[in-house]
Amino acid sequence: xAEVATPCEESSAGGGDGRSNRFLVVAYGIQGHxxxxxxxxxxxxxxxxxxxxxxxxxxAHRRMFPSDSGEGIVSDGVISYAPFSDxxxxxxxxxxxxxxxxxxxxxxxxxxxxxxRRLADAGTPVTCAVCTLxxxxxxxxxxxxxxxxxxxxxxxxxxxxxxxxxxxxxxDAILATAEPAAHEPTLTxxxxxxxxxxxxxxxxxxxxxxxxxxxxxxILQGFRELFELMDDKEETPxxxxxxxxxxxxxxALRAIRPYLGDDVFAVGAPVLAGAGEEEPAGxxxxxxxxxxxxxxxxxxxxxDAQPVKxxxxxxxxxxxxxxxxxAEELLLGLERLGRPYLWVVRRDxxxxxxxxxxxxxxxxxxxxxxxxxxxxxxLAHPSVxxxxxxxxxxxxxxxxxxxxxxxxxxxxxxxxMNAHLxxxxxxxxxxxxxxxxxxxxxxxxxxxxxQVLSDGKTAANASAWKExxxxxxxxxxxxxxxxxxxxxRVQELSGMNL
Length: 498
Known about the structure:
Elements: E1 8-9, E2 21-26, H1 31-45, E3 50-55, H2 58-64, E4 74-75, E5 80-81, H3 98-121, E6 128-132, H4 136-144, E7 149-153, H5 157-176, H6 214-231, E8 238-242, H7 250-260, E9 264-266, H8 298-304, E10 311-315, H9 324-337, E11 341-344, H10 352-364, E12 368-370, H11 375-380, E13 384-389, H12 393-401, E14 406-408, H13 415-425, E15 429-431, H14 442-454, H15 456-472, H16 478-493
Helix pairs in contact: 3-4, 5-7, 9-10, 9-14
Keywords: Glycosyltransferase, Transferase
GO molecular function: UDP-glucosyltransferase activity
Enzyme class: transferase
C-alpha cells in the first residue's frame, strides 16, 4: 500500500517553529476516523500561527507510513504525525471486557502523555487537544496537562442531539419506540422537526445491560462519559466541533446549542466539488486508504467507457462485510437491473464462498468488482447514476456534496439516522428495507434503485444540495469561518492575544 505522504523527521526539535497554537488531533485507527481527523488537522495548519499534529494508534500509523518505525515524530510538510500505543499494536480488535478496556486506556494515556511531553521538550508545546468522538484517554491527558479539549463529532448534528437527550432524561421515551405496538411508535426530540422511530435512532441506544454485544455496550458507555464531561466544563474546558454544515443541519445545530452553549462549531466536511475541479479550501489533501487499491485504478478507465448516469455504485465502507447470502442477493438485484455496476468488496471480508460468487460475477456480470477505490473520484464521475450506501457519515456527506442520489442500506451505529436524513429530511434517496434476517434482498435493491432513478424530484434535490454544499465549503465560507472561530476560542482559553 502506498504511503499517504513521504514522511521526514520533524525539523523543529529543540527550537520551536514560531507558531503559537499547536493542536494535537487524536483519532481511532479506522478509516472513518482517520480521514476526517487528518482533514481537520491540515485545515487547522492552514490558519496563520497554527500547527497541527495527528496522532493515531501505532498499527494504523505503520499502515499509513510503511517505511516509518513509528518511534518519532514525522512531517509531510503540512502537519506532523506522532503515533501512540493504544495497547493493540498488532491491530487486533478490543474485546469489550472491563479488564481489556482498562488496559488499553492506561496504555493510551501513558503514550499520549509521552507525545505531549516530547513536543513540549522540543519547544513546540501543545495548546489544545482534539479527539474524534468518545476517547476517554484523551480527556485524561487533557486534564493532566491542563489543555483545552475539542471533541470532533464526526457524525451528524442530528445524532448529537439524539445522544444528548438520551443521556439527559429521554432514554425511556427513546427505548419505548422499540416496544411492540399496533402502530410503530414515534418520538419527536426537543428542537427537531420530524418524528423518529426506533429504526431511525443510533443502534447503540438499544444495547441493554443484558446484551451479549460487549463492544456496543463499551461504545455506549464511552458516549456516556463524553456527555458527563460536556456537563462539567470547570475542570477541562471542552468545545464541540461538528463535522457538518450549517446549511445542511441548521435545525439540529440550533437545537443543541441551548444545551451545550456557544462552544459548538459546525466546521464542515470539505470534499471534492466535482470531477476535474480543484478541491475547496482546506480539504485536507489526499484521502488516507488503509486498504490496497488496484494498481492503475482500472476502475476509472472502466467508468470512462460507461454511458452517462448509468452505473450503480455499491459500497459498505471500511468495517462491514458481506455474508454469502447477502452477496448473492446483491448480485441478483444488480443482474435484474441490467445496468453496469461497480461494487466494492474488501479483501479482508471475502470468504471462500464469497470468492466463488464474485468469480461468477466477474465472468458473467455486467459490472466490475474491486477491493477498494477512491470513492470521491467515483462519485464525481459522470457515469455514476446512484450510490447504494451503508450510510456511514463520510459516505453520506460525499454523496450529498457530489449530488449523487442514494439508496440507503444502514446497519448500525449512526447509520440508521443518516439514512433517515438522506431519505426523509433531505429527499436525496430512498431507504431500503431488510428482511427478517437483516438481509437486503435482490428484489428490494432493484426496486429502490429503479425508484431513485425514475424519480426526477430526488435527482433535483440532490443537485440542489450539491450547490448548497459547494457554497458552504468555499474559501472563507461558513465552514472555514467557524473553524477560525474555534481557534480564536482556544486562544482565549489559553490566555493568548494573537
